[in-house]
Amino acid sequence: MRLRFAPSPTGYIHIGNVRTAVYNYIIAKKYNAELILRIEDTDKERSTKEYETMLIEDLKWLGLAWAEGPDTGGSCGPYRQSERFKIYKDFTERLLQNGNAYHCYCTPEELEAHRKEAAAANKPIVYSGRCRNLPAVEKMKFEAMGRKPSVRFKLPEDVSIEIDDKIKGRVVFDSENIGGDFIIVRSDGVPVYNYIVVIDDAMMKITNIIRGEDHLSNTPKQILVAKALGFTPPVYAHHGLVLGPDRSKLSKRHGITSLRRYREQGYLADALLNYLSMLGWASESGEEIFSIDEIAKQIDIEKLSNSPAVFDFQKLKWMNGQYLRKYPLDKITDLFIPYIKEAGYDPNKIEKQQLEVIISILQKKCDLLSEIKSFIGIFLAEVLEPDEETDMLLKEEDSKKIITEAYEFIKTNTADKDSLIGALVSFAKGRTGLKGKKLFMPIRGILTGRLKGPELDDVVPVIGLDKSRKRIEYMFNRYI
RNA sequence: GUCCCCGUCGUCUAGGGGUCUAGGACACAGGGUUUUCAUCCCUGCAACAGGGGUUCAAAUCCCCUCGGGGAUGCCA
Fold first, then answer.
1. Fewer CB within 10 Å of terminal CB in chain A, N or C?
2. Which window residues (54-93, chain A) lie with Cβ within 7 Å of strand B?
3. Residue A296: its pLDDT value, please?
4. ipTM of the complex
5. What are the boundaries of each domain within chain A?
6. Residue A368 has what pLDDT?
7. Closest nt to residue A310, judged CA to C1'
8. Is the minimum distance from the CB of A248 to strand B below 7 Å?
9. Separation of CA A458 and C1' B36 in angstroms?
10. Between residues A433 and A272, which one has the greater pLDDT?
11. Proximity of residue A309 CB to strand B below 7 A
């Protein structure tokens, strides 16, 4: 069994395509099959080498791996379509010679006009076949005009093409409504996706194709090409697409769509992998947090979802939090460090043990790695500006009482850093009669500048006596 | 327009003729733990798109309608 993932490097890789890659990876893992990475870069306008590099980097970051590809090599290379033109050219010659393809001299403008006409008349958009049997004289006329022909595949008439799809079941297309003879080589000599995908899959000995259902209507064309070339078509499996909340194909206007952005925001590769494979599949037990090995054990091609799935940003975040809290301290510390730097602190200046204590406290509070940026100052800053909601709270009369008492407290305090918070709370409680939320939230505000955050019992021993005192003085001066 | 695919709580899904008063998870609401926000635990809310068949019996099989998506490129 040989599988492939074939992205085109026209931008940061889209999360929907990543899901397809993940499925291929998992199924390959399950059956111990080879996974091939092929770069489909024939769209010269949009493909770049930079995107290819980033695409591979992102996929590797996610934890995917492949047996053959442009970076790893392999016996069926090259693995970039732009480097395989010679192969395609030979096949095109063959098709031209045995009458399965022909030159077409129609210009894009003419074709566009024809399409518009058909659309206006509410007729199906089909290529007229004008150049299918073009007399030699006409050809010469066009050549003399300087027109460069494209190559079209000659569609057999009155045949129905049957796909035995592993997910969709049996799907049948009639050759009549495939849209007419389709272009396989552009007039500039660059061959087109629907054509070369067939050649590459055959030459690379691909046995199974798992891809999005946006490719389902291309499949009959590909099967026809395969037959004309004498290839046995692979086994197909078309899974449902990823949609946005409005149920259209997930796109930028719905939120983040590129794997790279998720990575930057501090999503974990394991969580992403888990969520993506769970989007359109469920385990028998109903459990949802699984390692990739466990998923590979349980999942199967036929069980992949048939219908489209709305991407649930909230659930992904929840799942990420589950992973984040489970990670061992040394691993999660390394992952957090870049975000601590982003927040403007230098982790190298902090003693390793101290840093790990801080991380172990903050790990409990974060769903995303980047969220540490809003908490880290609680430990590393000297004094903190209260945020808006904290400011509102500290302006209240009850809060002012507590600020005053806290200030009194530090003047006479004899507690050490570990008993400080307990002593402060009882002191303030005893003097003001306030308790619960009324008591605790202002103290949290005074010490951290925020209403949300890690346990004060954890925070105060870490920041110590001096810093606590400074922050209380600061708030006293500010509000009283 | 035409072709193809899809249709169970708001979302991801389980279910594939009787075990369905339809199960789980996220979200949401309420409660408990935490002298606080969060975490965690418990409870609740909430769905078979509609209409016809087939059958003793339909979420499950068939047909129609409706709704959604995709394709219809010298993009992939």
1. C
2. none
3. 94
4. 0.94
5. 2-81+243-310, 84-239, 327-380, 383-480
6. 96
7. B11
8. yes
9. 13
10. A272
11. yes
Overall average pLDDT of the A198-207 stretch:
98
Show the 3-state SS of chain A: CEEEECCCCCCCCEHHHHHHHHHHHHHHHHHCCEEEECECCCCCCCCCHHHHHHHHHHHHHHCCCCCEECCCECCCCCCEHHHCHHHHHHHHHHHHHCCCEEEECCCHHHHHHHHHHHHHCCCCCCCCCCCCCCCHHHHHHHHHCCCCCEEEECCCCCCEEEEEECCCEEEEEEHHHHCCCEEEECCCCCECHHHHHHHHHHHCCCCEEEEEHHHHHHHHHHHHHHHHHCCCCCEEEEECCEECCCCCECCHHHCCCEHHHHHHHCCCHHHHHHHHHHCCCCCCCCCCCCCHHHHHHHCCHHHCCCCCEECCHHHHHHHHHHHHHHCCHHHHHHHHHHHHHHCCCCHHHCCHHHHHHHHHHHCCCCCCHHHHHHHCHHHHCCCCCCCHHHHHHHCCHHHHHHHHHHHHHHHHCCCCCCCHHHHHHHHHHHHHCCCHHHHHHHHHHHHHCCCCCCCHHHHHHHHHHHHHHHHHHHHHHHHC
Please report, rounded to whole angstroms, the spatial distance between the CA atom of protein residue A172 and the C1' atom of nucleotide B5. Answer: 11
pLDDT digits (tens, 9 = 90+) for A381-395: 998 999 888 999 999
- How far, in Å, is the CA of A215 from the C1' of nucleotide B71? 8
Task: Answer whether residue A435 shows pLDDT above 90.
Answer: no
Q: How far is the CA of A87 from the CAs of A23, A77, A90, A200, A348, in angstroms?
A: 29, 11, 5, 9, 54
Class of the CATH-defined domain A84-239? alpha beta
Domain A84-239 matches domain A383-480 at the CATH topology level: no
**Do residues A154 and A100 touch, judged by C-beta distance below 8 A?**
yes
Mean per-residue pLDDT over chain A, rounded? 93
Q: For chain A, what percent of residues have pLDDT higher than 70? A: 100
Q: CATH number of the domain at A383-480, out of 1.20.1600.10, 1.10.10.350, 1.10.645.10, 3.90.650.10?
A: 1.10.10.350
Which pLDDT score, from 0 to 100, does residue A161 have?
A: 95
CATH class of this structure's domain A2-81+243-310: alpha beta
> Is residue A280 scored above 90 in pLDDT?
no
pLDDT of amino acid A199: 98
**Residues 311-370, chain A: which have Cβ under 7 A from strand B?**
312, 314-315, 318, 322, 325, 364-365
Active site residues of A: 252
- A458 CB below 7 A from strand B atoms: no
Average pLDDT over residues A362-382: 94
Q: Examine the pLDDT at A412 and tell me if it is beyond 90.
A: no
